[in-house]
C-alpha cells in the first residue's frame, strides 16, 4: 500500500535515480505508473534487508517461478502490488499462515521495512520483488498461478493529464486476468472517488471478469484487508474508501 502523496510532474521521472539494485527496476518502455522517490533506508531497514533479502527476495533474473518450489508447499497464493511500507501485507500474512503471499514494491525503503516486519513477526509465508509489477506479471509468474491479486491505494495520479499513468488500465487488467486462476479475485481499493469510478468503469468493461457485488456496486471492506493509518486518517477527515472485488470468470 502506498502513501498518498502528490505525484511528481512527468519531468521528475528523468531525474529519479535507480534504487540500490544492480538490475533495472523495469524493463518496460513507455508510460509508467510510478516515480522512484528519493529516500534512504533507515539503519534498521538496511540491516533487515542485508539479513533477509537472500531468503525472502525474488529477482527478475530467476525467470518464471514455481510457487510450490519457492514456498515449499502448495497453498493459496496472493499477490500484492505496491505494498508501500509493508505493514498491511505483514498483517495479512500473519493472520493467514496457511496462505502464501508475494509482495511487489519498487521503493527500496518499503522493501526494507517489510523485511523488518517479516523478521519481527517470524513470518515464513512472504516473498518479495523489488521491481516493476509489470515485469513480475510478464516475466516471473506462470499463468493461472494466483488465487488473489490485491492493489490497495495505488498512486491516484489525480491530475487529468496524468490519468494515463494510473496503474489500473484495461490492458493491465487483462494481463492480471491470465495470472489468476478461474474464480480468482482481483481486489482493488482507493480513497480517491474519481479513481474509484475509473476502476469501476475499467473493470465493468473487462472481458473475463465479473463483480462479486451487483453490477456497478462497490464491495464492503473484507475483514482480511487491514485498515491503514492513512485510511484511518482519511476517515477522520470524512474521506471515503472504495473496494472493488471482481472474480475471473474464464
Automatic annotation (TrEMBL):
Domain of life assignment: Bacteria
Basic and acidic residues bias locations: 1-16
Residue spans of biased composition, Polar residues class: 17-26
Annotated function: Catalyzes the formation of N(7)-methylguanine at position 46 (m7G46) in tRNA.
EC code(s) of this entry: 2.1.1.33
Pathway the protein acts in: tRNA modification; N(7)-methylguanine-tRNA biosynthesis
Family classification: Belongs to the class I-like SAM-binding methyltransferase superfamily. TrmB family.
A Gene Ontology molecular function term of the record: tRNA (guanine(46)-N7)-methyltransferase activity
UniProt source species: Marinobacter xiaoshiensis
Residues at which substrate binds: 159, 191, 228-231
The keyword Protein transport belongs to this UniProt entry's keyword annotation: no
Keywords, comma-separated and alphabetical: Methyltransferase, S-adenosyl-L-methionine, Transferase, tRNA processing
Name of this chain's protein: tRNA (guanine-N(7)-)-methyltransferase
HAMAP family recorded: tRNA_methyltr_TrmB
Pfam families the UniProt entry points to: Methyltransf_4
Catalytic activity: guanosine(46) in tRNA + S-adenosyl-L-methionine = N(7)-methylguanosine(46) in tRNA + S-adenosyl-L-homocysteine
Sequence segments annotated as region (Disordered): 1-32
Gene3D superfamilies found in the cross-reference section: Vaccinia Virus protein VP39
